[in-house]
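input
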Amino acid sequence: MSQSPPSLSERFRGYFPVVIDVETGGFNAQTDAVLEIAAVTLKLNEQGQLERDTVFHEHVVPFEGANIEKAAIEFNGIDPYCALRGAKPEHDVFKELCKHIRKAQKAAECQRSVIVAHNATFDQSFVNAAIERQSIKRTPFHPFVSFDTTSLAALCLGQTVLVKACEAAEIEFKQSEAHSALYDTEKTAELFCYMVNRYQMLGGWPLNKEEN
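output
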């Protein structure tokens, strides 16, 4: 008799991984603006392999009094006040994000969402600060647990820079599209899936445990 495929809730101890990237107006999560955010949820396919699922992406209007460093927007190429960005207020974006993630988390029968990001502390700090600043009570995210693809890539691929890690994993990465929250999130999701699936293929995570 064939066994049913594993569930995502079994893979990460009830945690629901959400790959996130933010583009910001600086490095200080308490004072600097969130300008763009993207999130990719994940799922296990019938073969038990991790793959991308849903995508959330929004441009964000800087919160009132937000600091925006010139060097930061020169680096990411974002004009914070360009009407063509279609930016939404920070409160609306993060409320929608939390609702979107809660729905996907519930469907996966997971108990809490965990941010997956390249240099995860940075993105997690900005997400946490925005959620607190906007007094959003029903956050799905764990306040401090995260999965850092920088550390995982160092272990699995001997690389820490996102583009170099993707190259080592033979994932196409166009440097000209980097520093877009959506593009970086999609590539980080591909990289995370590659590393998790590779570990499984090498026997590092047994899907079927023998009965005692």
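quick obs: The chain has a mean pLDDT of 94.
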